[in-house]
Write a structure and sequence with these properties.
By secondary structure, this protein is α+β, with helices and mostly antiparallel strands. The protein has 3 helices and 8 strands. Helices cover about 45% and strands about 25% of the residues. The strands form 2 sheets. Strands 5-4-3-2-6-7 form a 6-stranded antiparallel sheet, with no helix packed on it.
C-alpha cells in the first residue's frame, strides 16, 4: 500500500490540472444546430444556433432561417442542450416500454404494501382471499397494462434526444 500512495497522488494531481484545461476548451456546435437554452427569467427557448461568443448566443427561434434572431446573454444561460435528432418509433417504443414497466412495478408495489398493512391491522382468518393476495393478483395485469400503454405511447411520440453542453460554445462554419 505505501508504494501505491505516490502513484495515487500523481494521478490526482494530473486530474486536478487537466480539469480546468478541459473546462476552458468549450464546445464546438455546428452552425444552425437545433439547441434548447434554459434561462433564469425567461424560461426555455428552442431554436437554431446562429452565432455564439463569450458574452452571448444568437438563436433563430423559428429555426427556419426566416425568423428574427434572439440574443441571449451567456450570463442568463442556466442550461444548454444540443439536439441529437428525433428518436425512431422503435427507440421511442423501447423507452416507453421501460417507463411503463417501471410505473407498473412502482404502482403494484404501493398497492401490495397498502394491502399488507391492511391485512396486518385487520386480519381475516376465514377469508379465502386476503387483501395482500388480491393485490398481488391485480398487480400482474396492472403492470402489463402500463407496460403496453408506455410502449404504444413511446412509439406514437418518440421525442427528441438532447445532449447537455456547457458554455463557452463555438459555432462551426456551415459546410
Amino acid at each position: 500500500m505505501p508504494k501505491l500512495r505516490p502513484f495515487l497522488a500523481a494521478l490526482l494531481l494530473a486530474l486536478g490540472a487537466a480539469a480546468p484545461a478541459l473546462a476552458q476548451r468549450g464546445v464546438v456546435v455546428d452552425s444552425a444546430a437545433r439547441v434548447r437554452v434554459k434561462q433564469a427569467e425567461v424560461g426555455t427557448v428552442v431554436g437554431a444556433l446562429l452565432a455564439a461568443d463569450s458574452l452571448s448566443l444568437t438563436l433563430d427561434p423559428a429555426a427556419g432561417g426566416m425568423g428574427s434572431s434572439l440574443l441571449i446573454p451567456v450570463a442568463d444561460v442556466r442550461r444548454m442542450d444540443v439536439s441529437l435528432g428525433v428518436r425512431t418509433p422503435s427507440q421511442g417504443a423501447w423507452r416507453g416500454l421501460k417507463k411503463g414497466f417501471l410505473t407498473g412495478v412502482v404502482l403494484s408495489g404501493a398497492i401490495i404494501a397498502a394491502a399488507a398493512i391492511e391485512d396486518e391491522q385487520d386480519p381475516c382468518g376465514d377469508c379465502f382471499f386476503n387483501a395482500t393476495l388480491s393485490a398481488v393478483i391485480i398487480s400482474v395485469p396492472l403492470t402489463g397494462a402500463t407496460t403496453l400503454l408506455g410502449t404504444v405511447w413511446g412509439a406514437a411520440a418518440p421525442g427528441e434526444r438532447w445532449r447537455r453542453v456547457q458554455p463557452p460554445v463555438y459555432v462551426a462554419p456551415a459546410p
